[in-house]
Amino acid sequence: MKSQTPPPPPNPSSVTTAPLHQLPFEDDFAYYYSILQDPPPPPLSSAASPLFASADTAMPKRRKRIGDENSGGGGGGEGGAADDGNKVDSKKRKNSSGGGGSNHSNKKRSIAKLLTSIAALDAQDESDRRESDESARRDLSLLESNHHQKTAAMLDYYSRLRDHFDELDDSDSLRSQRARLAAASSAAAAAGAAEAEAGAEAGESSPGRSSQAGGAGPHPRRLWVKDRSRAWWDQCNHPDFPEAEFRRAFRMGRATFDMICEELGSAVAKEDTMLRAAIPVRQRVAVCVWRLATGEPLRLVSKRFGLGISTCHKLVLEVCSAIKTVLMPRFLQWPPDPSAIKSRFESLSGIPGVAGSMYTTHIPIIAPKISVAAYFNRRHTERNQKTSYSITVQGVVDPDGAFTDVCIGWPGSMPDEQVLERSALFQRAAAGMLKGSWIVGGPSYPLMDWVLVPYTHQNLTWTQHAFNEKVGEVRRVATDAFARLKGRWSCLQKRTEVKLQDLPVVLGACCVLHNVCEIRREQFDPDLRYDLVDDEVVPDNTIRSPAAKQARDNIAHNLLHHGLAGTAFF
After folding, report:
1. What is the pLDDT of residues 436-489, one digit of tens each?
2. 326/349 Cα distance (integer angstroms)
3. 282-265-303 Cα angle (round to 5)
4. Three-state DSSP class for 217?
5. What is the Cα–Cα distance from 403 to 564, expressed in whole angstroms?
6. CB neighbour class for 287 (10 Å; exposed up to 12, middle 13-18, buried from 19)
7. Residues in domain DDE Tnp4 (predicted)?
8. How confident is the model over 481-527, as pLDDT tens digits?
9. What domains, with CATH codes, occur in the chain?
10. For the chain, percent helix, then strand, then coil, each to nearest 5?
């Protein structure tokens, strides 16, 4: 009867466990710890126990018997084969039992490594968390420290600022006290002067007492004024100053200068104050006239007259405004009856009905901050190659070269034709006030019913050449007047420090002073004559009136055939 072999022991790798979230353990470490423990042996049934017990007791006898049979040699081949098969099965079970133990130990080692890695990661996380907390605490401490420092700095700044304002208040109060003391001293000086006069009448005062009474002499004390030398102006203002030197400095004689001061006295005079004496009218007018005549910067004007730079700038504008208000209505106005002017121009050129000669010049300026392109001067000649900006001055003059009409301030990029259309002269002509009169202009103006210009086309006839000659004589009156204007007042020759909005007032004052000098026959130094070549333009006039074209042809014909055009072409 074949003996039964016992079943193999259970393999630990085949043991199934519940999912991790269903385990009764409180954490993962308890779960892994339970796995590392040796698993309990599987329970055996009561039926199998006697079998294993008999098998264990029978094994030694069976092995002995198998050995006997092998050694006997005659014990039947079939039984021996069966015993050999049982032996092989026993070896297989042993091998399988040994392999299960090896797998179990390997799993233990892998789980131990896993737990070690998890513990290391937890330790690293804990270290990182501690470092982050420490860094946050340091940042918070630094922020609080900076806030405290900033607060302390601001408090210190406010404290110093408050101290500064307290000092200012103290200085203001001290200044007011000084002013009161000065007023009291002035009152005491006045009282002393009155007492001295009374004593002089009674014969009891000494000769020098009045001059010693608190500075009430010929040179009273001037408070709040910086001491500056005005020796040059005192020398010029002296009656013994040479007339030629005075004329060279102010572009006019002393008599004309005195007349201007007398006319402007009520407009520019100021009263003395408690703290300073007012600048005299003659010095005020002299500052303005010398500045316009020389074109020197305000810094040099300040040194010459012993005044502040801002004071000189203010005086120039005040006197120019007074000249425009007081002197312009007297010395620069359109004549109510131009018959005398027409007669003089006709005797000069032979052209009848000429009421004035017109010309437009450009005054250089510093490039403005707004509308720069509008003030760009497009007139480039040999002397004007650089980029420049300017404003225009259009003027009409009489036979003496005095202005009868001016239009000042239009941008330099505007052509002469557009400047004419925006002038008061054009409005006067549109109102019919220039009917029967000619205003002679250059080739940059259009031919109109009241504007007479030369011929500009090619291949001119003798009649047209003769007419252009006579028109040129009339135009030369205006160009010479502008040459004297710019030569007499050098501030018109270069870019000025005057603001653009104040420049028309200054230029108008120059035109009025030019008329004053021309009317009073002030001698003009030929060395001061200014060349107007920069104002020359390419002839570009248009014909706006067929009647004016016919009238010009008739004038040209009469000039030639009545012997008034000269003999230059014969």
Report:
1. 999 999 999 999 999 999 998 888 899 999 999 999 999 999 999 999 999 999
2. 35
3. 30
4. coil
5. 27
6. buried
7. 359-515
8. 999 999 999 999 988 888 999 999 999 999 999 999 999 999 999 88
9. 231-330 (1.10.472), 334-495+527-561 (no CATH)
10. 60, 5, 35
